[in-house]
TrEMBL record, chain A:
Compositional bias annotation for Basic and acidic residues: 20-44
Keyword ATP-binding: yes
Family: Belongs to the protein kinase superfamily. CMGC Ser/Thr protein kinase family. CDC2/CDKX subfamily.
Record EC number: 2.7.11.22
Domain called Protein kinase: residue spans: 111-401
UniProt-listed SMART domains: S_TKc
Gene Ontology annotations for the cellular component aspect, listed alphabetically: nucleus
Protein name: cyclin-dependent kinase
Superkingdom of origin: Eukaryota
UniProtKB/TrEMBL annotation, chain B:
Designated name of the protein: Uncharacterized protein
GO molecular function terms listed in the Swiss-Prot or TrEMBL record: cyclin-dependent protein serine/threonine kinase regulator activity
Region (Disordered): 241-269
GO biological process, one term: regulation of transcription by RNA polymerase II
Organism per entry: Mollisia scopiformis (Conifer needle endophyte fungus)
Domain of life according to the entry: Eukaryota
Biased composition (Basic and acidic residues): 258-269
């Protein structure tokens, strides 16, 4: 109390004026000092430039005697100068290209194995330590198929695409190492960043799904990784929760590029036998040979749904079942909503109800707690017509990420005990990515059964099925 | 960025390869004839030129790591074509590749000299046994190549860049001369692939494309902009006749490009 009074007494007008003056003086001093410093800097820079210019000019004069050493720095020209009209341009800022090198693979013996993480359809992964640096990495061994065509092309593509990628949300390939015996290259290991979790195992072990803010963090990171890939003309073609890794600092990284490949514009003919069934876009199921980035966007939609409920969104037992589950959830395509879908190879054997008016998307009903923007994003990502799905860039700018609750920052992300770091993981039956090989013939996949069961249910309900 | 840039050879690698006990002329011949063999195989296999070009770049990169005499040149060429085609959009079967190389190495080969002899199918017939042996050899070398390159098979080519640069300089305004310049520039770039100077290992695609345009425009007497247009393609202009293989930071080496022109003529003959 007393101090307050005292200050009140002391702070009369005169004091305030004095204080203001002092402040002003101080500020002026500061400004003067900054000005001096700036001038000194400028002078130094000028001197440096002059020195450099002189050095360059001296160097030039050794080649070209017409140049005077006292002349200021100037780019030498070879093309004849046009007198008078030449305008001096500042030296151009040239792009410096990174030039990494190539060298022989190191040996896998340089790494000390810590524990196995998992064995996938495509190779096994283990946790290991670099004996030189002590860094913990994930070693992924390439599976060699026995076919007589050398090192499998899937592995080579994975290495090629991963080597070209550099993004915080894409797992980094540090190097490729081989077995000790290099007379025959059979044991090939990818040295990758080690991350504590994969999203699939994490979701299985959680009692409650992620919070909306956390889902936004994950989805945003996933989408920025995918956006980077698409900008660099890479299709991932096997996005699913078990291929998304998460570390204890809340950073998500896309992994497993076994199905990835470069594409072009217009898209080249590619196999439809890609993407794990539950995340496979309808155009792939219908046998499209030319497809593009929307197949990855569909998978992102499936992952979004899975993050919301902890359960994979579309768990079909086979291609036919998967497609019927998709139509159940997203409605039935019509010539208006998806022009030209009937011309896709597998659509011919498809039996669709004749008046599909009542068959809209039930996504909004399935996720009642999602905001309007959220469900709109989900519906857009799971659009049957690939042309209607948003690009990765559009998703990043979506209103969903701008509304409350905001994205949780990665640093604030909760941590979980790591299965990969400690113990053998439990495995649940997720179908594997399709194996390379012959695409089953169109006739072999019979889609006629999709609505077969419903025919009985809908009897008399004004619902007719037509063979197209 | 990766679409525009390549890994480059280190000074140490170039030094080591120059210090080979073999005479330099012999090394140059080996590089040239093997690269020409790859190019011929690419044509017979109907491979897109970018794949053949990438194969030759990988071949030269391999030789900076492993000794030139380590594998039979033709086997190495076949293996690198197989590997490059495999990871591309137009793979070729081992059967086709071994057949093509059997022909190219036979007396009936169009490469065996002028006049081209009457083809004698007997001389390039590949029995099942020989095929299996060759195939296994190729697969073995494929692994060796990948090991030597650290599995880095990325090759960015200057060809599309050259066309883009020409387009930005409005060279195609006159379709006839534009086409001629473009054609000549591409010829330079393809010829440089065979050059034992290994230009693709020491220079970034932007520099190669710019040099090719410069030479092509000079050949065809086409006027390019007066200003320093090469700066737009991030190339510094330095004409330095004294320096041999440069430090590889984007310089325009007239001498080396001249060299590639000589080679170009050699191939056309």
């Amino acid at each position: 109390m007393s101090t307050k009074q005292k200050s009140r007494w002391a702070d009369d007008e005169e004091d305030a004026v004095l204080e203001a003056q002092r402040k002003k003086e101080k500020e002026e001093k500061k400004r003067a000092k900054a000005e001096k410093q700036r001038r000194a800097d400028e002078a130094a820079a000028l001197r440096a430039a002059e020195l450099q210019g002189e050095a360059a000019a001296v160097a030039d004069s050794s080649n070209n005697n017409t140049e005077l050493s006292s002349r200021p720095a100037k780019r030498r020209r070879i093309s004849p100068e046009i007198e008078g009209v030449k305008v001096e341009l500042p030296p151009a800022k040239l792009l410096r290209f990174p030039s990494p090198e190539w060298k022989k693979c190191r040996s896998v013996e340089d790494y000390e194995k810590l524990n196995d993480i998992e064995e996938g359809a495509y190779g096994w992964v283990s946790r290991a330590k670099d004996s030189r640096t002590g860094n913990v990495v994930a070693l992924k061994r390439l599976k060699m198929d026995n076919a007589n065509d050398g090192i499998p092309v899937t592995g080579l593509r994975e290495i090629q695409t991963l080597m070209d990628c550099e993004h915080p949300n894409i797992v980094a390939l540090q190097e490729v190492v081989v077995g000790e015996d290099t007379s025959k290259i059979e044991n090939i290991f990818l040295v990758l960043d080690f991350l504590e979790h994969d999203l699939k195992t994490l979701l299985e072990d959680m009692s409650e799904p992620f919070l909306t803010s956390e889902i936004k963090t994950l989805l945003h990171q996933l989408t920025s990784g995918v956006s980077y890939l698409h900008q660099n003309w890479i299709l991932h073609r096997d996005l699913k929760t078990s291929n998304l890794l998460l570390n204890n600092r809340g950073v998500l990284k896309i992994a497993d590029f076994g199905m990835a490949r470069y594409f072009g514009d217009p898209p080249p003919k590619m196999t439809q036998l890609v993407v794990t069934l539950w995340y496979r876009a309808p155009e792939l199921l219908l046998g499209a040979e030319r497809y593009g980035t929307p197949v990855d966007m569909w998978s992102i939609g499936c992952i979004f749904g899975e993050l919301l409920t902890k359960e994979p969104l579309l768990q079909g037992k086979n291609e036919v079942d998967e497609l019927s589950k998709i139509f159940e959830l997203c409605g039935i395509p019509t010539e208006e909503t998806w022009p030209g879908f009937k011309r896709l190879p597998n659509a011919r054997s498809l039996r669709l109800p004749q008046n599909p008016v009542s068959q809209g998307s039930v996504l909004r009903a399935k996720f009642p707690f999602l905001t309007k923007a959220g469900s709109q994003l989900l519906i857009d990502l799971l659009a049957l017509n690939p042309g209607k799905r948003p690009s990765a860039q559009e998703v990043l700018e979506h209103a969903f990420f701008r509304e409350e609750p905001r994205m949780k920052s990665a640093e604030m992300f909760p941590t979980f005990p790591s299965k990969a770091g400690q113990e053998k993981r439990r495995r649940r039956g997720t179908p594997n990515a399709p194996m390379r090989g012959n695409v089953p013939e169109i006739k072999a996949t019979d889609f006629s059964g999709i609505f077969a069961g419903r025919e009985d249910e809908e009897k008399g309900g004004g619902f007719s099925l037509k063979l197209i | 960025m990766s679409h525009l840039s390549n890994p480059l050879a280190t000074a140490e690698q170039l030094f080591k390869s120059a210090n080979n006990p073999l005479p330099i002329e012999l090394l140059d011949s080996i590089r040239f004839y093997t690269a020409r063999l790859t190019q011929a195989a690419g044509i017979l296999l109907c491979l897109p030129q970018d794949i053949t070009a990438q194969a030759n770049v990988l071949l030269f990169r391999y030789w900076l790591v492993d000794d030139v005499m380590r594998h039979e040149f033709s086997d190495l060429s076949a293996a690198v074509v197989y590997l490059t085609a495999k990871i591309s959009a137009s793979p070729r079967s081992l059967r086709s590749i071994t057949n093509v190389y059997a022909y190219l190495l036979s007396e009936s080969s169009a490469l065996s000299g002028t006049p081209v002899p009457e083809p004698d199918p007997q001389s390039y017939y590949l029995s099942e046994g020989t095929y299996v042996t060759r195939r296994n050899k190729l697969l073995h070398i494929e692994g060796q190549i990948l090991n030597a390159l650290g599995f880095n098979t990325h090759v960015a080519l200057p060809h599309p860049l050259a066309i883009t640069y020409l387009q930005t300089m409005d060279v195609f305004i006159s379709p006839r001369t534009g086409k001629a310049v473009a054609k000549r520039a591409i010829e330079y770039l393809n010829a440089a692939l065979l050059s034992p100077q290994m230009l693709y290992l020491t220079h970034q695609p932007a520099s190669l494309a710019t040099a090719a345009i410069y030479l092509a425009a000079r050949d065809k007497g086409v006027k390019l902009p007066d200003c320093e247009w090469w700066e737009v393609s991030d190339v510094r202009e330095v004409v330095n006749k004294q320096e041999g293989i440069s430090n590889g930071d984007g310089e325009k080496e007239d001498e080396e490009a001249e060299m590639s022109r000589m080679l170009d003529e050699k191939v056309v003959d």
